[in-house]
Design goal:
Blueprint lengths: L1 H8 L13 H8 L3 H11 L2 H7 L1 H8 L2 H23 L2 E2 L2 E2 L1 E3 L12 E8 L6 E8 L12
Protein name: Ketoacyl-synt-domain-containing protein
Length: about 140
């Protein structure tokens, strides 16, 4: 009986979370709905809210569309370079694949060349492919930079 009286006198917590309610009722009353939680989280971490606190984010919001595209292109180019170096590493003492791509010429009227060299691990035979692209630079070249 003493234990019940202590629980009944405890007035801390949300209304509707008394000792006689079942666990399901407690959870439905005590926790916020998921929609309200995520909406509050989105408000706290929105771009506008973050930009108000941090100068770096303010500058990012003011960046022009062309600068954003250029920034993305630089990041993708760096990722492609890392991918090529990762491919040329050895696997169990054998060269798995070494891909070399020649830099595209700066002029738009010249052809763009890409050289791929692959090495078959089982037979040891090397195959070399030269792919010449005669289209205007930037149209067919795309990712061969």
């Amino acid at each position: 009986m003493a234990q019940y009286q202590i629980l009944a006198r405890k007035l801390l917590g949300l209304p509707g979370t008394g000792p006689k309610q079942t666990l399901g009722v407690k959870n439905s009353v005590a926790t916020q709905p998921r929609v309200r939680r995520t909406a509050a989280h989105r408000r706290l971490h929105s771009v506008h809210h973050t930009a108000a606190r941090c100068a770096r984010h303010r500058v990012q919001r003011l960046r022009t569309r062309a600068a954003s595209y250029a920034h993305t292109a630089r990041r993708w180019a760096a990722g492609a370079a890392r991918h090529l170096t990762r491919q040329s590493r050895t696997v169990a003492g054998h060269r798995h694949c070494s891909c070399t791509q020649i830099q595209c010429p700066p002029r738009a009227d010249t052809a763009c060349y890409s050289v791929h060299r692959t090495h078959d691990v089982r037979t040891g035979a090397a195959r070399r492919e030269h792919v010449a692209r005669g289209d205007a630079h930037g149209v067919a070249c795309g990712g061969a930079r």
